[in-house]
Amino acid sequence: MGNAVIRFDQVSKRYEGGHEALSQLTFEVAKGEMAFVTGHSGAGKSTLLKLLALIERPSHGHISLDGQSLAKIGRSGIPKLRRSLGMVFQDHRLLMDRTVFANVELPLVIGGIAPLERGRRVRAALEKVGLLDYERQLPASLSTGEQQRVGIARAIVAKPNVLIADEPTGNLDPQLAVEIMGLFAEFQQVGTTVLIASHDLPLIKRMKKRVVVLDHGRLVADVAAEEVL
Amino acid sequence: MSTPTDVQPPTRSERSHRRPVSSWREHHSWSAGASLRRLASKPVGSFLTIAVMGLALALPLAFYLLLSNAQSLGDALGRNQVINVFLKPDQVAANAQLLAKQVQQHDGVANVTLKSPQQGMDELSKMQGFSDSLHALDDNPLPYVLEVQPQDGLSADAVGHLVDDLRGMQGVDMVQDSGTWRQRLDALLGVGNRAVLILAALFALAVLLVVGNTVRVDITSRADEIGVLKLVGASRAFVRRPYLYAGIWYGLSGGILAVALALLIEFALVDPVARLSQVYEGKLHVGGLPPWLLLAVPIAAAFLGWLGARLVSAWQLRRAA
Ligand SMILES: Nc1ncnc2c1ncn2[C@@H]1O[C@H](COP(=O)(O)OP(=O)(O)OP(=O)(O)O)[C@@H](O)[C@H]1O
Ligand SMILES: [Mg+2]
After folding, report:
1. Which of A61, A168, B148, B158 is a plausible cystine mate for B83, CB 3.0–4.6 Å?
2. CATH top class, domain A4-84+161-227
3. Which range, of A119-128, A186-195, B116-125, averages the lowest pLDDT?
4. Compositional bias (Polar residues) spans (chain B) (predicted)?
């Protein structure tokens, strides 16, 4: 497939002193595709995403992102790779002593964007997640779902081609979870490639997207969007 | 590829914002602001750090001030330096005048005053307690005295040679040189100068350590934030920059505080030094802190703060990586 944005080729990961968290994993995600990675706890979902963001390195195999081999990226190249990725975390990883605006602004500051342009883009991102009125607040004064949406705004503000999310709805009530997943689907609709790790099977089924199922680090099923019941 | 937040491709201005120079500027202004916010977020701790550095740097400045005043005191006294040449009692007025002329011709001599025994007697009789006992004397026992004023700025060695020459002259009984104390003072001031340099070096080291430790604690307490910055793509330089700025702010503030303290000390010294100056007929020039030093101290302190932060953050962030 020529248009694969994410490509795993015979990838294995063994943590130091641990068993194999991923073994011989091979799959691709096409440009503009949205896919879920699911499986029971400890199946290797987070590990898969960490390999993509170079938080961990594979023990074997080959990973490429946007046609670029991750093995060729050294320590000094990691920040650039991460700037090209939007990442959302279950625990949202916000700076609690900075305002919502400052949190969302962060990737743009790192990207060296001028203040005026930053303001414009931050507001566009906050509007997208429905938090335009919250820009001056501290994350602590927001609800869990709102905090998660701030995390999503931060992930999309620099307009990454690829968005990855690890349990983005992990501690949200079902209604909110559906809303958040809807947001990701919207980004897919404008061309962003989206990969989400989640164990919330009912929610995943509802979204009618491709599902990659892991079990003990092995790929056991890869269900295309049309086949999701 | 189209974009999620708004579907337009990057505009021209957007692309130009990515130029390295402007991104460098954005990074620095953000880091400078972020570091100031951090200092302000814990005002007591920041103030204590700055106060410790201010005091540490003020100490060598205070010593410098005392020393330069002692030096100018020595200079003022040195200008009054007189070598008294006592002639042998058998010398008559003509001989004394001839000798005075001879001495006047000597290289290092600025001025020679001849004092007759009678003048000496008159001076003594003006002093309290002496007049009665002087009346008891039949003869004037005092010899002719040449008061020799060496030229200004003559080195201690040259004065020593002059004294030797005077001692060797015919008809000279005794030479009293008040210059030895001056030599001692010079030697003492030399030791003092060296001590100030060593002190300054030690306290500079203290500033380095204080800033280094403050930054170390700061980095440790901000491990989460550093993790987040790295996850959203911040380079090591970007993560580190606010700490370097913090080091600069600490150093600069400490340096300014030190200068302010030193000026306060200088101000406190003005009165007593002025009184001392009166005693020496205004010949004593008050040695204040030179303007270049007032400027150099904050700049040097800022550099030290930056250096301390740089050393510690390099080490600390590598460990955190
Ligand atoms: N840093 C680590 N060091 C050692 N072992 C690890 C590390 N991180 C994960 N593992 C192990 O790797 C395996 C896969 O973990 P991973 O976090 O990828 O699972 P997961 O599918 O995300 O699970 P969950 O649904 O609970 O988040 C687990 O057995 C886990 O114990
Ligand atoms: Mg996980």
Report:
1. B148
2. alpha beta
3. B116-125
4. 1-11
Q: What would the pLDDT profile of B153-210 be if each residue is shown by its tens digit?
A: 777 778 888 888 888 888 888 888 766 666 777 788 888 889 888 988 998 898 899 8
Structural domain boundaries in chain A? 4-84+161-227, 99-159
Q: Amino acid letter at A38?
A: T
| A167-181 pLDDT tens trace | 998 878 888 889 889
> Taking CA atoms, what residue in B is nearest to A159?
B3
**How far is ligand 2, taken at its centre, from the CA of residue A49, in Å?**
9
Q: Are A33 and A188 in contact (CB under 8 A)?
A: yes
How far away is chain B from the Cα of A228, in angstroms, using its nearest Cα?
25
Element at A60 (helix H, strand E):
strand A60-65
> If one looks up domain B82-177 in CATH, what number appears?
3.30.70.3040
CA distance A158 to A140: 24
ipTM: 0.90
Give the start-to-end residue ranges of the domains of chain B.
26-74+185-320, 82-177
* DSSP per residue, B261-312: HHHHHHHHHHHHHHHHHHHTTT-PPP----HHHHHHHHHHHHHHHHHHHHHH
